[in-house]
Structures are given as C-alpha cells and as structure tokens.
C-alpha cells in the first residue's frame, strides 16, 4: 500500500495519467484527512477551484490542493512529535495517567478526523494548516467556551456522528466536532442541553 509521500509524487508527476493523479490525491486522504475523507475532499476542491466530481481537473489545481494538504499535514505531524515528547517526559516524571487531551488525541492519531465535519459540505473555509494551528492552540491552552477554529460560542450537542466519539459538541458556524478538552464543563453542559451559547 502506497504511503502519503509516494501518492503525492504521483499527483505531481506530469507523466501520470490525469485520472491516476486525481485518484492519488483522493488516496492521500486515506492517510490524512482532518475533516474526514468526504469533507476534506470537498474543502480541497472548493479551495483549489475544481468540482468534487470533476474527473479531469486542471493538473495545476490538483497540485494546489495537494500543497494545501501537505502544509496541513506538516503542521499536524509536528504537533504529534511534540505530543509524544511531552508524554514521554510526563511518564519519566511519574505522570502515568493520561489526561483528557491524551484520550482525545488517541482517537485522532495520524490526523484523521482531528477537526471532524459530519456534514461534508459544512467545514471551515480557511486553509487547512491555519485551522489545525488554531485547533492545536486551543488544545494547548486552558479550556474555554468557544470553538477554537472560528471563535463562535454557538455549539450544539449532536448524536449519531459518523465518527468516534459518535456524539459531541458541534460548532454551528464552521461545522467541526469541537474536541471536548478545549471546552469548559459549563460549555459542554450548555451544548448538551441544546442551548446555543451567546457571548456576554
């Protein structure tokens, strides 16, 4: 099975058939898809300017989509390295029990679904790398009451998500499943009760 980098080389290779180049970009999403496969594909297509069903997109646009995905992957892999180093140090210092961020991180190792969007047409519009930087910043700071990606406090608890966890606080603005560790207990409780939070 081809890895992300070998698939990326196929996307860039002008000697490859255009259908193979498009297929290789789709296969990259099996290795790294921050919003989930379908929502990340929709995001990349809209940002690069070709349709999700376009079977022969402009190769320049395909490469632009790949470059956005690669930049985001670089951001996420750097975070995972830092995360692993921190956990190693904590274990060395005697802190064996993982925290809530660690529990969340275990479900997202490799970057699949880190900013899960259950509706593939509703996702952040900013570049993937910027979204991941905001998400990481939220994970590294004290819990708050808003979505770490778009800053809105309009969160609602949704059930039967096509993801693990299968329920949680979803941002009504950008559509991501907000990681529970970035939210205060009161924000989680309000989302569960179905009350949209309003800034004071």
Structure notes:
The structure is a single chain. It is built from 7 helices and 2 strands. The protein is mainly alpha-helical. Strands 1-2 form a two-stranded antiparallel sheet. The longest helix has 34 residues, at 59-92. The N and C termini lie far apart (52 Å).
Compact summary:
This protein is mainly alpha-helical and 200 residues long.
- Give the class from helix and strand content and strand pairing: mainly alpha
Helix % is 40-55%
Output the strand order for the largest sheet.
1-2
Work out the number of β strands: 2
Give me the strand/helix succession.
Answer: HHHHHHEEH
Please give the alpha-carbon distance between the first and last residues.
Answer: 52 Å
Cα-atom radius of gyration: 18 Å
Overall outline: globular
What's the overall average pLDDT, rounded? 90
Strand count, sense and barrel status of the largest sheet are: 2 strands, antiparallel
Primary descriptors:
single chain; 200 residues; globular; 4% strand; mainly alpha; 48% helix; 2 strands
Topology:
Layout: H1 4-12, H2 18-28, H3 37-48, H4 59-92, H5 100-108, H6 128-140, E1 155-158, E2 168-171, H7 185-193
Antiparallel strand pairs: 1-2
Helix pairs in contact: 1-2, 2-4, 3-4, 4-6
């Amino acid at each position: 099975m081809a890895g992300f980098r070998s698939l990326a080389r196929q996307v860039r290779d002008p000697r490859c058939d255009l259908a193979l180049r498009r297929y290789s970009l789709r296969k990259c999403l099996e290795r790294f898809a921050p919003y989930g496969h379908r929502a990340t594909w929709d995001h990349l297509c809209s940002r690069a300017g070709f349709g999700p069903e376009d079977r022969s997109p402009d190769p320049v646009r395909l490469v632009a989509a790949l470059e956005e995905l690669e930049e985001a992957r670089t951001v996420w892999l750097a975070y995972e390295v830092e995360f692993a180093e921190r956990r190693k140090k904590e274990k060395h210092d005697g802190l064996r029990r993982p925290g809530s961020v660690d529990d969340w991180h275990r479900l997202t190792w490799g970057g699949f679904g880190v900013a899960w969007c259950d509706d593939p047409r509703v996702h952040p519009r900013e570049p993937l790398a910027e979204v991941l930087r905001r998400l990481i910043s939220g994970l590294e700071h004290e819990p708050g009451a808003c979505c770490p990606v778009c800053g809105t406090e309009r969160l609602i608890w949704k059930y039967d998500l096509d993801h693990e966890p299968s329920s949680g606080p979803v941002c009504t603005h950008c559509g991501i499943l907000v990681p529970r560790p970035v939210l205060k207990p009161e924000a989680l409780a309000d989302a569960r009760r179905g009350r949209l939070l309003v800034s004071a």
